Amino acid sequence: MATWIRRCSESHARCRRETPRLPTRVIDVSTGDGCRLYESHGERAEYTALSHCWGKIRILTTLKENIKEHTNRIGLDALPKTFQDAIKATRSLGVRYLWIDSLCIVQDDADDWAKESAQMASIYREAYLTLAATAANDGSEGLFKPRQVDTFSYTLSGTQDGSDGVTIRATKHRKHDCLRAVDDLSESGMVSLPLMTRAWCYQERILSSRILHFAADEMVWECQQATSCECDLLEDYQQHDWSKLTGGDPIAQEAPDRTLFRLPDMEKHWFRLIRNYTVLNITKDFDRLPALSGIASSLIPAEEYMAGIRKARALEDLLWIVSTTTPPRRPDTYVAPSWSWASVMGNIFHAHPWNIDWTQRPEVSTGLAEVKSISTVKSTVDHFGRVESGELRISGTYFKALVKQKDQSEIIGSTFGRHCLTMEIPDLPSSVWPKEVALDTIEDAREAVGQSVRVLALWTQYGNISFLVLARQSLIPSRFRRIGLVEMFPFATIAGKAKRFTVEEVLEKGHKGNITII
User: Fold this and answer.
1) b/e string for 349-367 if b means 16 or more Cβ within 10 A?
2) Heterokaryon incompatibility domain: from which residue to which, for each copy (predicted)?
3) What is the pLDDT of residues 59-113, one digit of tens each?
4) How far apart, in whole angstroms, are the C-alpha atoms of residue 91 and residue 43?
């Protein structure tokens, strides 16, 4: 650990930084027989941060009723093993302060929670080192635990008759691909580690300038410039993780608003981020946006961010689809407007390939509607956190459609209602519209059968058209809510002959107007 830190401090230009200002509260670990909660006054000092799974066991937290007690002293025996180990590691580094979310945020104070969680990006980015309890399910397991090393043995026979053989025992090859980038977490071995399955911990890893993983079989180091491990197979692996661009790309460093919109591949990384984030577990539905707020605030200006949708790229960001890998559902409580991917609890991906910058190829991929306005009402001081409501006004071409159940297929959870529906659109030949229609959730599918909806032409790519499926809001008939996104391939069979319609020919049969989506 000390070697990695020394090498990083001395030779990694991208990792050099000024001593940061302390967060609002930190744990002072300088007292030998305990520690205490320290309320800072804007002074500069080094601190470490802990990234951990809360788990199902009860851990010590700071509350309104015990905050004064915690500022006096916290006994080590009152802390779970993970916290105790983090204190030991911090002391061994010669660092006085440690930041732990459960102790440094007043957990039963909504205002304090909102204020401090909004600082998550800077807290982890400025930390001297993030200690990650990557292999621990909860606070009882700790950072330091017996190694789970997978070994094999092989016996070599002696070279002469009667001589003893030699048994060789070695460690099996460790898979490190999961640590080389955050991309493709669902296909990665890292996702099987407890910390890497948690949505909150995703941004803690992304944002940290330096992070030390206490994995099951070894420690792994990540910083702005390199990745290393104890087995040396990753020695000084050069990072290409997009999240590190904030500290390493000169364009991003020079941008006064700290955005990465000037980077030509920003769209690719944003959609991949959403895909990776939404595959992870989150305990409380209403944390869907707050758990991503640190990353969002590092990339997007507050006035440009609307419940997970970027104002400047709103039309493209509306092209999200819910994966069929797990049963998607609407959250238990209000989380986001229906036009936001955050309004569905499920794995989200983008309808179009993320690795192509479509803004550079308008002849094959372009928008068909215009976003007139988009806004949200924030619930807290965190502009990237929870919202109370949102409204999207969009102008374009729409068709009236009737949702029908396909044959006698039952809308059941095993198919999520995705392939049991079809649509009737009087203004278009029946053979033009897709034979199967996928809506966002099973609830949306069940409620839509037999109902009239509107389908709004949103985007075209290579002649195909993406439509938003919109249902009237029962409480406010003049408002609509999104229930799905469908793709139309404009081919039809007319008088026994195949005909391909142009996008213009399809749109001229529709209705023009403004629609408000909530």
Assistant:
1) bbbbebeeebeeeeeebeb
2) 47-204
3) 999 999 999 999 999 999 999 999 999 999 999 999 999 999 999 999 999 999 9
4) 20
DSSP state of 279: T
Collapsing DSSP to helix, strand or coil, 315 comes out as: helix
Quick one: which of 432, 421, 437, 435 has its CA closest to 489?
Answer: 432
Q: Concatenated DSSP letters for 170-201?
A: EEPPPP-HHHH-STTGGGSGGGGSGGGGBHHH
Q: What's the whole-number mean pLDDT along residues 370-375? A: 98
Hey, what are 397's tokens? 């071409």
Q: Is 23 helix (H, G, I), strand (E, B) or coil?
A: coil
Token representation of residue 214: 């206490």
Distances (CA, A) of 343 to 2, 120, 286, 320: 44, 23, 10, 11
Distance between the two ends of the chain, CA-based, in angstroms? 50
Beta bridge partners of 322: 348
Structural contact between residues 491 and 355, judged by C-beta atoms closer than 8 angstroms: no
CA distances 258 to 245, 297, 513, Å, are 11, 9, 37
Return the number of other C-beta atoms located less than 10 Å from residue 318's C-beta.
Answer: 26
Question: Is-contact 27 37, C-beta < 8 A?
Answer: yes
pLDDT tens-digit series, residues 173-201: 555 444 544 444 444 444 568 888 899 99
Q: How many residues does the chain have?
A: 518
The DSSP H or E segment spanning 61 is none
Are 141 and 81 a contacting pair, CB within 8 Å?
yes
Closest-CA residue to 459 (of 467, 451, 448): 467
| Residues 53, 138 contacting (CB under 8 angstroms) | yes
Label residue 517 by pLDDT band (50, 70, 90): very high
Q: Is 411 left (phi over 0), alpha (psi -120 to 50) or beta?
A: beta
What pLDDT does residue 364 have?
74
Q: Is there a contact between 73 and 66 (Cβ–Cβ < 8 Å)? A: no
